[in-house]
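pls read this protein:
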Amino acid sequence: MSGIEALYWAQKYPNEVSAIIGLDMAVPEAYENYEIDMLTIKLGQFASKVGITRMIPQIANGDAVKFGTLSDTEKDIYRAVFYSRTATDTMIDEVTYIKENAKVVSDGGIPNIPILMFCSNGNGTGWNEETWKKIQTKYISNCASGKMIELDCSHYIHNYEYEKIANEIRAFLD
């Protein structure tokens, strides 16, 4: 959803945003036919608020904990933040309005700035690999100055390909 936010900011403040670097970012088309199960999301919010999620410790062991470069102390902090800040009202609102917000961004057009997109294999996005890559490829092909780099890893690409991402960003910014 941060991809939608970045694109919106570039549309709204074109003199302030000079480029976008997207880490497996969703673009407006991704949300056009996406089915959002609000009942499950609301149940997750309830479970989080009453502490049920703390009874399932593996739920807080996301990719950052399993595959990232966090120290043991940082992993503990990650888990504490996860348990205290998951499924907040703001997060639920973001999901509730994402289709509407994606439409606003779609109607605003593609920003005329350089865009570097890193694209995962689709795992963890809610879309299959073919659909996810197709949506990303279609969007970047319509950018005046866009580049997409495909990575064979799941959605939280910064936990897997951080060195490649850093090198590509440096080259993009030079």
In short: Residues 2-30+108-173 form a domain with the Rossmann fold fold (CATH 3.40.50.1820). The first strand starts at residue 20 and ends at 23.
